[in-house]
Specification:
The chain has helices at about 20-30, 35-45, 50-60, 65-70, 75-80. The protein has 5 helices and no strands. About 15% of the residues are buried. The protein has one domain. It is mainly α and about 80 residues long.
Length: about 80
């Protein structure tokens, strides 16, 4: 008999750098490299909100200018500033 239990949804409030699929999701979602994601997580922890905030702060300092050229995702993070 097949069980029809729903798949567990990933916890998007945390960034789990030890899971390949999580890293792939977050790098695509935030439009950043794996290395940049790792630096942000190392600095502020694995809270997705803290990482987003850190990336927005870095963009305000001009640190992510090369990232902004790749897509609009981070531009949306800084428009409210």
């Amino acid at each position: 008999m097949d069980t029809l239990t729903p798949k567990e949804q990933p916890d998007r409030s945390k960034i789990k750098m030890n899971l390949k699929q999580e890293v792939r999701y977050w790098t695509k979602h935030l439009n950043i490299s794996k290395e940049d994601l790792q630096k942000a997580v190392d600095k502020v922890g694995n809270s997705a909100a803290a990482v987003r905030k850190e990336l927005a702060v870095d963009c305000g300092r001009g640190v992510c200018s090369r990232t902004l050229e790749r897509g609009p995702t981070l531009l949306l993070l800084t428009n409210h500033i």
